[in-house]
Design brief:
heterodimer, A: alpha/beta, Rossmann fold, 6-stranded mixed beta sheet, 4-stranded antiparallel beta sheet, B: alpha+beta, 2 domains, 6-stranded mixed beta barrel, two-stranded antiparallel sheet, 17 helices, 12 strands, 49% helix, elongated
């Protein structure tokens, strides 16, 4: 059974404008990486925002484990069901790497005996060196910040990871390392990873690639 | 729990912003504490002062009532004249109200104005005019001397308060009908009189009517009004002759002298005094009369600088809260606007906007509470010296205003005109008759027989909360210089409670601003606009 399902979903920014997404239906399973492709302005990021319940569809539904996301508490949904990785990382600049991750655990309400240890472990597993753990995140490189953002998304162990152009600002080597992380998350940790991307490397690694104009490739 | 922890961490992380906010709240709290303390000091001082004041009161004409100022329709002049002319209450009527339960004791005095056949009044002008200057009441034929008859020793407040004492001979017997009197040492020396001598007095209106009074004692008064307006040479009470009311009444009956009788009621406390007027009206006192206390008027006059300061403190507090609240609200809104991105990220990763707002409110509350405690502490510690400093300035300004004939002169502290019979003088306790400058009619039943000097000095010495100081030294004058110009306590539990309310108000204003700001933010708009 699909963990995440879109049924006949449409979206327009306002009632009088054209629909950015029109009658879209999709299903996402655990243990797979999905790449969402499309030209600029096609509505990829909008789709990801809908999946993250940051905005709601004009028509249709999104269900998680069979439950309509928009009938749930959308904050609680984002805090525990999905982990979001933004293109611009969106870390809290006054917090260091560990604090960013700890805060995310706090918001999720997940009981973790030693949050600091847990945050440190995740960050270390994602390649953050010990001496970077307590550095202000703004002093980190783009790749490091993206790893912190992924660590934050993983900190409360959500079944779904949503990533918006996660390698868009990274060099090739770092991109490859991040792709490797997503690959492991889906295939070793059984997460449903949905990535909006322009990257051919990401698309090659994905189990399924969706073109949001309705074309489906495998 | 994590919300509070996060709030505390944010306070530490954003030290500049926190310090700025705390400084503003601290200044508001300090100023509010001082303002509230000044008001508390005024209230406490007034209450304690009134509690310790020995209050006497008199029934006087209510000129506002007579002039129609209360019902808005002024009567014509004849009606007013009639009201004033028929205003004298008899001794029997005065005694009737003395039986009311609010009255602790009652005494009365009578006074006549006379001339003497063989002695001269102590005077600066030839022919003698001391009596005219000192005593003669309008409506009575003016003589050089004033003879005052007292119903009891209690009525002789000058002697009871220690402002006058017998230096030779004895005091006439209380309630005696014998024609015995005491005279001033100045009058005795001026006319070479001794104890045992008799003085022959003459009615100013009918020289055929005479009577003799024997001197049994000579007194010396320490409350001479040297330097007073109207008595520049300080002759004071030298031409006042004192005797028993019963004796003077008998003399007045036999000689046809016009004797004015005034009654003075003494009250156990301020509440009793407050009740007396209503009780008297219920007992039949006409509505054209009112009850006034020179003691209270004088005490309120003493409090005038403190009351002024208290009033200014109230206005200051109101302005402070309006401006302070607006500044805090603006600062909070700017601060949260600066943190818009933080709001967007927190909402995007699942923290509800209510929780985000709560975190900001915790931050505001923690900073505010700390600043209010510090401000309140400093305010409490400095409230007494600051209040006294401001009070000294206020007292000096009030004195200055009086000296220049400013609005304070001749007016009661509450802004109302002094009523007839409310002599401004604290030294005129034996000057039983007052007049109205524009009328040749006596318009009062009473006079200022108050024990102002005594009671007020008691207040100054005994009251733990206040001290009254004569700002104008020994000159004294019309008694307008005895202002309360220092307090010993200002902040109290009530001030702390009020400060807590002020703090809650400030927190509520800031919290409201934070809440409204956070709730209207859309995380997606924030994050996409940043992209």
């Amino acid at each position: 059974m699909s963990i995440l399902k879109i049924e006949n979903m449409s979206f327009a920014y306002s009632p009088n404008t054209r629909k950015v997404i029109d009658g879209l239906s999709m299903e996402f399973d655990e243990g797979k990486v999905y790449a969402l492709e499309g030209r600029s302005g096609a509505g990829k990021t909008t789709l990801l925002s809908l999946l993250a319940a940051l905005t709601s569809p004009t028509e249709g539904t999104i269900t998680v484990n069979g439950e309509n996301v928009f009938k749930k508490d959308t904050y609680a949904y984002r805090a525990s069901d999905v982990g979001i990785v933004f293109q611009n990382y969106n870390l809290l600049p006054k917090l260091n790497a560990i604090e960013n991750v700890e805060l995310s655990i706090d918001i999720s309400g997940r009981e973790v005996p030693d949050k600091r240890r847990h945050a440190t472990d995740i960050l270390t597993q994602l390649g953050i060196a010990d001496y970077d753990l307590e550095r202000p995140v703004l002093q980190m490189s783009g790749g490091q910040q993206q790893r912190v953002a992924i660590a934050r998304a993983l900190s409360y162990d959500p079944p779904i990871i949503l990533a918006d152009e996660p390698t868009g600002n990274l060099d090739t080597k770092t991109e490859q390392e991040i792709i490797q992380i997503f690959d492991e998350l889906a295939h070793r940790r059984n997460k449903c990873v949905i990535i909006v991307t322009h990257s051919k490397r990401v698309a090659q690694m994905a189990d399924e690639v969706f073109s949001i104009d309705g074309m489906r490739e495998s | 729990m994590y919300i509070m922890k996060n709030a505390l961490r944010n306070i530490q992380r954003s030290k500049g912003r926190s310090i700025l906010f705390a400084a503003i709240v601290f200044i508001i709290a300090l100023s509010a504490c001082l303002s509230l303390s000044i008001r508390a000091a005024a209230e406490t001082t007034r209450a304690q002062g009134l509690e310790q004041l020995s209050i006497t009161g008199n029934i006087t004409l209510d000129m506002d009532e007579i002039m129609g100022e209360k019902n808005g329709e002024p009567p014509d002049r004849n009606e007013m004249k009639e009201s004033i002319q028929d205003s004298e209450l008899s001794l029997e009527e005065l005694q009737k109200y003395a039986k009311l339960d609010s009255v602790k004791s009652f005494w009365y005095t009578g006074s006549v104005s006379v001339d003497a056949s063989k002695i001269e009044a102590v005077s600066t002008s030839q022919g003698g005019m001391g009596g005219r200057m000192m005593g003669g009441a309008m409506g009575q034929s003016d003589g050089d001397f004033t003879i005052t008859g007292y119903s009891s020793d209690e009525a002789m407040t000058e002697f009871a308060d220690g402002n006058a004492e017998i230096t030779d001979g004895v005091m006439f017997e209380e309630g005696t009908s014998e024609k015995t009197c005491v005279i001033s040492s100045a009058l005795a020396k001026y006319n070479d009189l001794e104890v045992g001598d008799s003085i022959k007095f003459v009615s100013p209106s009918d020289t055929s009517k005479t009577f003799k009074v024997k001197i049994v004692g000579i007194y010396s008064s320490s409350s001479s009004s040297q330097g007073d307006i109207g008595d520049p040479m300080g002759i004071g009470n030298s031409n006042n002759i004192y005797m028993s009311y019963a004796a003077l009444s008998a003399i007045a009956d036999s000689t046809g002298l016009d004797m004015r009788t005034q009654g003075t009621y003494s009250f156990a406390d301020y509440d009793a005094y407050s009740k007396f007027e209503d009780q008297a009206h219920e007992a039949g006192l006409d509505s054209k009369y009112t009850v006034r206390s020179q003691d209270i008027s004088n005490y309120e006059r003493q409090l005038q600088p403190l009351e002024n300061l208290s009033r200014y403190a109230k206005y200051f507090l109101i302005i402070l809260l309006i401006i302070g609240g607006a500044v805090l609200m603006a600062l909070t809104m700017f601060s949260i606007r600066e943190r818009k991105y933080e709001v967007g990220v927190l909402a995007a990763i699942g923290m509800s906007k209510k929780k985000i707002a709560r975190q900001f409110i915790y931050e505001i509350a923690v900073i505010s509470i700390a600043a209010i405690i510090l401000g309140g502490l400093l305010g409490s510690l400095t409230s007494v010296p600051v209040t006294n400093k401001l009070l000294s300035a206020s007292a000096a300004t009030t004195t200055d205003s009086f000296d220049r004939g400013g609005p304070d002169g001749g007016q009661a502290p509450d802004g109302g005109q002094m009523g007839p019979g409310q002599d401004q003088s604290t030294d005129s306790s034996t000057d039983q008759v007052t007049d109205q400058s524009s009328s040749d009619l006596q318009i009062t039943q009473t006079a200022s027989t108050s024990s102002v000097d005594g009671s007020q000095s008691d207040t100054a010495n005994d009251d733990s909360a206040t001290t009254a100081k004569t700002l104008d030294g020994e000159r004294g004058g019309p008694g307008m210089r005895d202002y309360v110009d220092s307090v010993t306590s200002a902040a109290n539990l009530k001030v702390i409670a009020e400060l807590v309310l002020v703090g809650l108000l400030l927190i509520a204003v800031s919290a409201g601003a934070a809440l409204s700001q956070v709730l209207r933010y859309d995380p997606l708009s924030i994050l996409t606009s940043r992209d």
